[in-house]
Amino acid sequence: MTELVDTRTPDPKKFIKGATGDWEMVLGLEVHAQVTSESKLFSGSSTEFGQPPNNNVSFVDAAMPGMLPVINEECVRQAVRTGLGLKAQINKRSLFDRKNYFYPDLPQGYQISQFKDPIVGEGMVYLDMGEDGEVEIGVERLHLEQDAGKSIHDQHPNMSFVDLNRSGVALMEIVSKPDLRSADEAKAYINKLRTILRYLGTCDGNMEQGSMRADINVSVRRPGGAFGTRCEIKNVNSVRFAGQAIEYEARRQIDILEDGGTIDQQTRLFDPKLGETRSMRSKEEAHDYRYFPDPDLLPLEFDDAYIAALAKDLPELPDEKRARFIKEFGLSAYDASVLVADRESAAYYEDVAEGRDGKLAANWVINELFGRLNKEGLNVADSPVSAEQLGGIVALISNGEISGKIAKDVFEIVWTEGGNPAEIVESRGMKQVTDTGAIEKIVDEIIAANPDQVEKAKQNPKLMGWFVGQVMKASQGKANPQAVNEILMAKLEL
Ligand code: ADP
Ligand code: MG
Predict the structure, then answer these.
(1) Candidates 27, 30, 137, 216: which one to mutate for ligand 1, based on the most atoms within 8 Å of Cβ?
(2) For ligand 1, what atom is nearest to the CA of residue 176?
(3) Cα 375 to the center of its chain, rounded Å
(4) Can you name the residues that pair with 175 across neighbouring β-strands?
(5) What are 472-476's contacts with CB under 8 Å, separation 24+?
(6) Cβ(80)–Cβ(119) below 8 Å
(7) 120/88 Cα distance (integer angstroms)
(8) CA–centroid distance, residue 30 to ligand 2 (Å)
(9) Which chain residues have CB less than 5 Å from ligand 2, an ion?
(10) Closest ligand 1 atom to 227 CA
């Protein structure tokens, strides 16, 4: 293992209060991400999810005698692309090792993994922590390995079953440095990693289906002190559980230390029902994996041209897209982060904003559209309002043809009935009245009908709001609010 370096300045906002003073948590994550590929790492079997048990199993996956692994080039390509996306060192020569242990769902009796010489070395993930600014989380390494099968214990009273569909599926293990200092940072890290993998198309990031899961290493220490002994929480499969598991585990360790105890280096499991972590095994029981180079596989080697070609074809990644949105459309860092969180949302926004008021477009996409989609449990891909339609609404507001308020009505019509916003506004007479003569007429009528209010308003100019309301009502919301204000001020002599 490489030497641990502390890259962070202790932040009192993140300290945890104990009975004997403040504590700080230190976290390092090992994320397992299933490589997007049609076939497994060393065999031609399908990786399709949801197949009947043992449907996707070749002789290689079942470790029949004499079977030899053949590296899947696509998985290598995906691992290198991921490394490039993590701004990481790509190792032109890497090795596959055997990690030996016995388990019923591991027919080979070893897992093919990478130990000393992984395919990808050090990289960096940037987190946007809102008010706390940008945080840099170091990546230690990324290596390729095979997944194991699955033991099933709940289908028969006295028998267990084994499903080898996952046996041999390619995983990328992405190991972070111990640079994380709070549950919120760990959650942001998992989310950011998932976003990057999805942009790259190298892992679908689907945690419910197990295509992404995290082992979370937790230790506590006095702020800025030496690193404490860590416990590792295995196989956390949701961002929410990660947060709960970390909070629980840090508190557990603090309680032990404050009672004068010491932390036993353990592997633990999080139980979502109880909201607790519990011990699986301690370091003394840890396996000796007897790693050694797999004699069936040659070293993995490629040249600069191979890496350069993959780098050239990478899509625009979330950090770059976010920077571009800020520059090109004048967005706030926060709005830009929300919009680039997934590729579909970013593409939708760009279609709305292109050639229009970018900030107004961001408001409409984030507040009106995402708000409504969330409420109805829909994805942006299923939005009943297309980017072209929403762009049409934004253009009508910018041109002063409709007010923001009327625009919400137009949005509602497009959402439920469809149609072209400009035509809807035209045919239903929803256009804003900017004709000052028409507005003046309404203002005169309201002033004439309410002499008492006029007197009061002269004493208390705040009452002008009441008049604005009356004019808007009389015009069915169509009067241009700015014109209404100006005319009222003049007529009420405020
Ligand atoms: P192992 O296979 O033994 O778990 P790895 O090197 O694969 O070892 O992973 C160790 C992980 O634990 C890394 O993410 C690393 O950042 C993290 N880590 C190491 N020391 C600590 C510590 N004291 N507290 C929290 N996390 C730690
Ligand atoms: Mg580990």
Answers:
(1) 30
(2) 14
(3) 19
(4) 30, 141
(5) 474/442, 474/445, 474/446, 475/433, 475/439, 475/442
(6) yes
(7) 7
(8) 6
(9) 30
(10) 23
Atom of ligand 1 lying closest to residue 178 CA = 16
Cα(339)–Cα(44) distance, integer angstroms: 38
* CB 345 within 8 Å of CB 339: yes
pLDDT of residue 120: 98
CATH numbers and ranges of domains, the chain: 13-308 (no CATH), 316-427 (no CATH), 436-491 (1.10.10)
The answer to whether 136 and 126 are in contact (CB under 8 A) is yes
* Ligand 1 pocket, CB under 6 A: 1, 4, 26-30, 175-178, 217, 219, 227-228, 230, 232
What distance in Å separates the CA atoms of residue 489 and residue 494, rounded to the nearest whole number?
Answer: 5
Answer whether residue 106 shows pLDDT above 90. Answer: yes
Q: What angle do CA 47, 48, 49 make, to 5 degrees?
A: 115
Name the least confident of 6-15, 296-305, 376-385, 463-472. Answer: 463-472
Element (H, E) at 257: helix 239-258
Mean pLDDT of 32-57: 97
Distance of CA 280 to the CA centre of its chain: 29
Would the pLDDT of 141 be above 70? yes
* Ligand 1 atom at minimum distance from 29 CA: 14
3-state secondary structure of 371: helix
| Closest residue by Cα to residue 350 from 312, 390, 314, 319 | 390
What is the best residue among 2, 173, 175, 216 to mutate for testing ligand 1's pocket, by most ligand atoms within 8 Å of CB? 175
Which of 99, 217, 266, 283 for mutating ligand 1's site (highest number of atoms within 8 Å of CB)? 217
Between CA 29 and CA 179 the distance in angstroms is 9
Q: Is the pLDDT of residue 204 over 80?
A: yes
Distance CA 172, CA 174 (A): 6
pLDDT above 70: residue 2: no
462: number of Cβ within 10 Å: 9
| pLDDT, tens only, 163-187 | 999 999 999 999 999 999 999 999 9
Handedness of CA 36, 41, 45, 51 (dihedral sign): negative
Give kind and range of the element (H or E) at residue 249. helix 239-258
- Residue closest via CA to ligand 1's atom 19 equals 178
432, pLDDT greater than 60: yes
DSSP letters, 270-307, are: EETTTTEEEEEEEGGG------EE-TTSPPEE--HHHH
CA 39 to chain centre: 26
Binning pLDDT at 50, 70 and 90, where does residue 1 land? low
pTM above 0.70, yes or no: yes
Query: Which ligand does the CA of 140 lie closest to?
Result: 1
Out of 73-87, 275-289, 295-309, least confident range? 275-289
